Amino acid sequence: LSTARNYERKIMAGDVQVGGKDLAIMAGPCTVESKTQIFEAAKAVSEAGAKMIRGGVYKPLTFPYGDPLGQPDADSGLPANERMRVVPRSEQDQAAEKRLGYMKEAAEKYGLAVISEIMYADTMDMMSQYVDMFQVGYRHMFNMDLVEALATSDKPILLKRHYGESLRSLLGVCEHFDARGKHDYAICERGVTVPHTHNVNSRAILDIQAIPAMAEYAPSVPVIIDPSHATFKRSYVAAMSRAAIAAGAHGLLIEVHPDPENAWIDPLQALGFSDFEKLMREIEAIHKII
Ligand code: PEP
Ligand code: MN
Predict the structure, then answer these.
(1) Which of 41, 93, 137, 201 has its CA 20 to 30 A from that of 55?
(2) Does this entry carry the keyword Transferase (predicted)?
């Protein structure tokens, strides 16, 4: 099969190549909830063939409490009085560093690289001790404090596109990195909003066309697809993952949880271990022929 895959640029996240011919599969829970949870997830995703563990330690929730519209994605899973509590930054930082420690320990045990979202520029040095790649969430693609700080980092960046922004705008942010001498970044497509979504819960539609478009306009930038946040729906994740790999994506960012229905955040989209294992076999088969 012909493919839009482009092998020009490879960046390194620890020992893991992102871009080039290898598939970079980044998998793990939305949120690092406990030491046991992240160790279980790291074991399962590494055995299935993923190269990186993902896990949020700072969570930029849409609402600071359970979603008033009842959408469970914004539900932190904590009791209402806990959810309503706005946690001061010092407490957030303490909890985040503890969870990053668990994730790094689990990653070392199972031979994985670590990716996690950075929300505050002043946490870059602390987080650098634990992560191999920084994720910039969609909300922060225009956060120049963060972009400027990350341009000085020796860790690679995964820059997520906001669901309402064009590829052109995203490439503008990439140019801000380039202009500051920072070239080891990849972009992540996680869905765009359109007038009609496929069901009432669906927040976004995966923009598969971004893959060939990036190959045309920014052939040197690896493209990672996040089918979990794009679909917001477990039963769509495998099909969109297969389509992304067939279209030439360099990798996937997928939410995988030991007990998906009870995930603190995003319980509707996380895959369980056996679903993820099955998906990895399918992806590998597709990757072999493109
Ligand atoms: C995430 O990957 O956990 C996340 C919050 O992503 P996004 O910024 O795409 O919502
Ligand atoms: Mn999530």
Answers:
(1) 201
(2) yes
In which element (H, E) is residue 136 found? strand 133-136
Report the Cα 70 to chain-centroid distance in Å. Answer: 24
Is the residue at 4 inside a domain?
A: no
27 C-alpha vs ligand 2 centroid, how far in Å? 11
Domain count, the chain: 1
pTM of the model: 0.93
Structure confidence by residue, pLDDT tens digits, 238-265: 999 999 999 999 999 999 999 999 888 8
Please provide residue 232's backbone torsions phi and psi, each rounded to the nearest 5 degrees: 60, 20
Ligand approaching nearest to the C-alpha of 192: 1
CA–CA separation, 227 and 224 (whole Å): 10
- Helices marked H in the chain — which ranges? 35-48, 80-83, 89-110, 124-128, 144-150, 167-179, 210-217, 227-231, 234-246, 273-289
Q: Quick one: three-class SS letters along 86-104?
A: CCCHHHHHHHHHHHHHHHH
Nearest CA among 147, 264, 272 for reference residue 254: 272
Record the tokens describing residue 57, joined without a space. Answer: 């330690």
* ipTM metric: 0.98
Q: Establish if 53 belongs to a structural domain.
A: yes
111 — alpha (psi -120 to 50), left (phi > 0) or beta? left
Domain span holding position 78: 10-289
Whether residue 2 is contained in a domain is answered as no
Nearest CA among 169, 205, 170 for reference residue 188 = 170
Q: For ligand 1, which residues put their CB under 6 angstroms from it?
A: 30, 56, 117, 137-138, 160, 190, 229
Query: Within a domain: residue 5?
Result: no
